[in-house]
Design a protein that fits this description.
about 350 residues, two-stranded antiparallel ribbon, TIM Barrel, disordered C terminus, 10-stranded mixed β-sheet, alpha/beta, binds S-adenosyl-L-homocysteine, 2 domains
Length: about 350
Amino acid sequence: MKRVLQDLSFEGLQELCAESGEPKFRADQLYKGLMRGRRISEIPGVPKPFRARLLETFEDEPVRIREVLTAADGTEKYLFELADGNIVEGVLMSYKYGRTQCVSTQVGCRMNCAFCASGLGGLVRDLSAGEILAQVLAVNARAGGTPEKRAVTNLVLMGSGEPFDNYGNTVRFLRLVTAEGGICISPRNISLSTCGLVPRMLDFAEEGIPVNLTVSLHSPSDEERARIMPVARAYKIADILRACDRYFERTGRRYIFEYSLIAGENADRAHAEQLVSLLRGRPCHVNLIRLNEVKEKSLAGVSEKEAYRFLGVLEKGGLSATLRRQIGADIGGACGQLRASRLGGNQPPEE
Ligand code: SAH
């Protein structure tokens, strides 16, 4: 595979152009083009010989939109093809305040959570910072946006992969996507979700990137958590909470817990009460999600009524909590479902 031009910051492009004996404005030209989601071969004004040299070293289109599925509620599911033929997924959700894109940080995932489709084939490879960025640039352009007038206003790092298992590239991506002069999405509009890799959470607190740090908790007890999330054997909830507090100290940002309700595993009243004792008084928010059932897994979700009952216990206990509305379920909205269905013989996702 060739290199990815989107891996370079504006300063990196300036160096590249200087080394190639190109005038200064060439870097502006390239950067503007890339930020508009253009391929190298489409960026206007680049002289033929330099363009040809660039294309010898860099992928013309490192991330290509291969397929878009639109759900009844307007949610769009993207299938991206990378230069080496690997596939990752993305989702674009429309809300009153704007549009949120869900991006992937790895092809596959090695965390192997019991409910998640992304881990089905293990980790294939990390995405580079530019490959993560190119997903955003491609979708923003397709949705009619520019860097000046963005169509994608918010990001969640909740596609396939564990962002902190690809730490360096994820942090570099965050610097690129928030850079002034680029697509410049505010860190406050970005949520990074981790399964709780404590050492990387502590490192991240020192990076000075005040995104919304989100942790997949899914259980108030270490023992039960380890049944659905193997990573819980390595990192205890108490250590996760300490790392979250550190993040709050350093950034002033409250943190968020994801809690996917799974029948018979983590969704009883006792779990809700335990969650209240664990989190009461902390600067945090709990996002409840009804499990998106994955056909390769035997776990089941709870009814809407049960989910609201769980929410009620949290609220009564003084926690800030919401139940996420389910969107895009008819297009395989949950992590890794669409890719899994495409790898398994090109069948459309099941309704
Ligand atoms: N690796 C990161 C990002 C994963 S995806 C992490 O673990 O946080 C974002 C969220 O969706 C996580 O909270 C994940 O646990 C959850 N999730 C994955 N598959 C799901 C499913 N089938 N139903 C409901 N939530 C799911």
